[in-house]
Amino acid sequence: MLEIKPREYFEGEFSLPGDKSITHRAVMLNACADGESTITNALTGEDCLSTAACMRALGAEIKVDGTTIFVKGSPDFKSGQRLNCGNSGTTIRLLTGLVAGKGIQAELYGDDSLSKRPMGRVSEPLALLGAKVQTTDGTAPLVVSPATLCGQEITLKIASAQVKSAILLAGLNAEGVTRVVEPVKSRDHTERMLQAMGAEIRVDGNTVEIKKSKLKAIDVSVPSDISSAAYFMALGALKGKTLCKNVGVNPTRTGILVAFDKLGVKYTLLNRRVSGGEEIADILVEKSPLKAIELGGEVIPALIDELPLIALMCAFAEGESRIFGAKELRVKESDRIKTTAELINALGGDCLETQDGFIIRGKASLRGGKVNSYLDHRIAMTAAVGLIASKEGGEIVNPECCAISFPDFFEKLGVCAGQV
């Protein structure tokens, strides 16, 4: 367990880890491209290292030096590899599509948590392209067998950047045109990077189509991850003033700012610019009186990772808040609807889980207490924010899972990493 003490005031300027979603894609796509590339400010947490290890096994040359990753691509993958995806849903789902398009044999597997997450959502649309992907009762391990793929139009019932990306990566090597239609637009890092690397890809609203393409390696400077910045932004709103530097503000990722607007959070985007096709800004957040909100609908895919944190902030807001349309949270590293509600209640809040979200009855403050992370990095980091902002502080059970996406999270918070 890790003990976290409360603070009267929280202030600071923070340089945060590179965006996990962009790092995954920069490594994966450059590893199958012609040429060599350098990826700077990469997130080298466990999930992205799983992607790097898988791409090495498939034939790419990859060297990790701190937050810089050097990649020499291998357009022709090695067949017959067992690919350990660790805890990373992004790795296993995107790589399934990429491997299926290459027409080789591979087995993809992961840890116990990943092995419980649904994979039919990837194997079923890929089968419509002609891919042969066998799941284990709808979960991992997955076995991909050689097959010739033909482009089709695939309409997704639920917006998912991972599923969309898997289909597009399979479409890189499919005959004809592969078209993906989403009910609402999910994050678009894959489309942006494929376009920058020379793929024949076209985006029209919620529809993306791609033709068989060869990729050219590109250098990538990864912006800081808004999902990581969110915890420090929340502490600025709850307890003081924070400035998060060089944060990616891609419009498909800034749903948290929509939630901030509803909550009444005072924030400013400074030094706005564009790098590598991705919008970047410094985000200043100041202490704010929070108000209850209703949050759901089309904004949910743009803040799915931040919803446990938003729910926690609602616990500090005046009035009753409702978050809905977020059933996807049930199939993350933990059942995040259940574990978020348990977290808030453990801190002395009042949160009722619903089928697809939460009802939170806000209070002026939370007492504090002991929170189980359930080995879910988002739950552990949300718990840390709640404990710092609480009256009495408390403890997190199994905090080490933060290494998956944010290895030095507690150091950045100024929390002693000693166990109790």
Overview of the molecule:
By secondary structure, the protein is of the alpha/beta class. The protein folds into two domains: 206 residues, Alpha-beta prism (UDP-n-acetylglucosamine1-carboxyvinyl-transferase, Chain); 201 residues, Enolpyruvate transferase domain (UDP-n-acetylglucosamine1-carboxyvinyl-transferase, Chain, Alpha-beta prism). The chain has twelve helices and 23 strands. The chain has a four-stranded mixed beta sheet with strand order 2-15-17-16, with helices on one face. Strand 10, helix 5 and strand 11 form a beta-alpha-beta unit. Helix 9 packs parallel to helix 11. The protein is globular and about 60 Å long. The relative contact order is 0.13. The model has no long low-confidence stretch (mean pLDDT 95).
